[in-house]
Amino acid sequence: MASKRVSVVVIGASHAGLGVSHKLLRQAPEASVTLIDPSDEYYFNIATPRFLVKPGSLPSSKYLYDIRETFNDYPSRSFTFVRGLVRSIDYSKKSVSVTTGESSSTESNAISVAFDYLVIASGSTTPATLGQGSLKLPFKATAFEDTRKAISEAQAKLLKATRIVIGGGGPLGVELAGELAEAPGSVKNITLVSKTGSLLEGATETVQRTAESILRRKNVEILKDVTVDQVTQDPKTEIWTVTLSTGQTITADEYISTTGVIPNNEFIPKSFLNQDGWVNVDEQLRVVEYGNSRSDTYALGDITCHPYRLLSRVAVQATTVASNIAASVRKNTRIAKYSAKAQKMMMVVPVGQSTGTGHLGGWTLWGCLVWFFKGKDFLTYEAPKFLRGKVQ
Ligand SMILES: Cc1cc2nc3c(=O)[nH]c(=O)nc-3n(C[C@H](O)[C@H](O)[C@H](O)COP(=O)(O)OP(=O)(O)OC[C@H]3O[C@@H](n4cnc5c(N)ncnc54)[C@H](O)[C@@H]3O)c2cc1C
């Protein structure tokens, strides 16, 4: 009689969930993986500052990919994709409850999926993605929403706007300002509001100064040491009023928030979460509950308590989780450990099509290198590798 296959359920089919699924299927063919996500397309959100602002710059085939197709090489009994949203985890039955289909609201079409091991890779979202106090821009995938429609609506709004305020002077705010300054259509009047005294907090001083000087050359107005205290939008005219900590108010066609990350944690037991809503994990990336590591549940990517929620951190985490589940399935005692500190600090920030700034460890990157690594196509050349779990 054939032995029962070990079932692994992975929640979230973005960079982290895809990475761990492929790596596990390659390492432990005796495992059977069920990957769950509300969308059956992989969204390479990293390139959003480019294609939302310059629609003609990248075809959708560079940032939207069919998920199922990339699993065709494995035996069919090894992999199942479920299009749906996980609503809850039931440890008494070792199963997750999933709402399937096109709608986010109906509970009637809920199914239950059993697991031996569970991997939480549900990531995060942003205020702008949800349209909370900001122009709605799909910086991340949104459950059950048509991503293509959200993209084309956002592109149309950005094309039309001439007066734009961006809240947040981090990498996304700087990248977006650089793209908008070169946007097609009428000349845009852009204000970037940074709550800190320099842009790109955490970068070296040289990098911070370079970002600022490129943006100023592109006529972006930069307000430093200023916070956005309130934003309102007139429902009739759709004009935004942005109130700053200085007391100044700015009216704009669009206000874009680039700050804040929100954990996708609605279905996760509260006992797994730290006070900010992120999943506690140990060095093996096993979920920690009441101070103890669970042997059946792992988490990786943005949803974990590790700071620096970055794509550049996801591949190593996926390798760690896949290796540890494979070892556990095979009763192997070799354990992989993840150390956030061991990963090199890096920041690569294109400021427009042809230049930018950044650093890799202590090395400052020249504008031409930033163009080469990221600016020319916003890393979309890497997307197929993330999609197939080929990044180490
Ligand atoms: C605009 C932007 C630009 C960025 N640029 C960079 C960059 O240049 N470099 C860099 O290193 N990082 C960058 N990042 C950060 C990077 O996007 C994240 O670190 C990365 O997306 C994390 O991947 P993830 O798979 O953990 O989570 P996510 O990408 O957030 O994906 C989570 C997935 O889980 C799904 N999901 C959520 N809840 C459920 C549920 N209940 N059931 C089923 N599925 C669910 C979601 O729909 C989604 O598909 C950027 C972020 C943004 C917003």
- Figure out the total of helices: 9
User: How many angstroms separate the termini?
Assistant: 37 Å
What percent of the residues sit in helical stretches (DSSP H or I)?
A: 10-25%
CATH topology term of the largest domain: FAD/NAD(P)-binding domain
Structural class: alpha/beta
Domain unit count: 2
> What is the molecular shape?
globular
Radius of gyration (CA) equals: 22 Å
Number of strands: 22
Tell me about the biggest sheet? 8 strands, mixed
Which range does the strand content fall in?
A: 25-35%
Spans where pLDDT lies below 50 across 5 or more residues: none
CATH class of the largest domain: Alpha Beta
CATH architecture term of the largest domain: 3-Layer(bba) Sandwich
The distinct ligands, each listed once, are: flavin-adenine dinucleotide
- Order of the strands making up the biggest sheet: 7-6-5-2-1-8-19-18
Question: What is the CATH superfamily of the largest domain?
Answer: FAD/NAD(P)-binding domain
Name the average pLDDT: 94
